[in-house]
Design goal:
Elements: H1 3-25, H2 54-63
EC number: 6.3.5.-
Keywords: ATP-binding, Ligase, Nucleotide-binding, Protein biosynthesis
Enzyme class: ligase
């Protein structure tokens, strides 16, 4: 780039900074922040006890790849684990 272009870019950048500074001066940046502690974990609905579905275990074990004699799912340990 030539010297003229560099000076033009510097001048435009300075104008942008000046305009931005003018806008910032209109805001009160010295105000205090407010913090809120919310005890409610689920604000969309009431928490209720979960009902278990007795058919779930049976259906789950049907689609499991391998189940032992006690009725537990047998899984392969990841090769990346020691």
């Amino acid at each position: 780039m030539d010297e003229k272009t560099i000076e033009k870019i510097k001048k435009e950048a300075e104008e942008i900074i000046n305009k931005f500074s003018e806008v910032l001066e209109k805001f009160n940046l010295e105000m205090e922040e407010s913090y809120y502690i919310i005890d409610t974990r689920n604000v969309l609905r009431e928490d209720e006890a979960v009902e278990s579905n007795p058919e779930f275990r049976e259906k789950f074990l049907k689609i499991a790849p391998k189940v032992n004699k006690e009725g537990y799912v047998v899984v392969e340990k990841g090769s990346w684990l020691k």
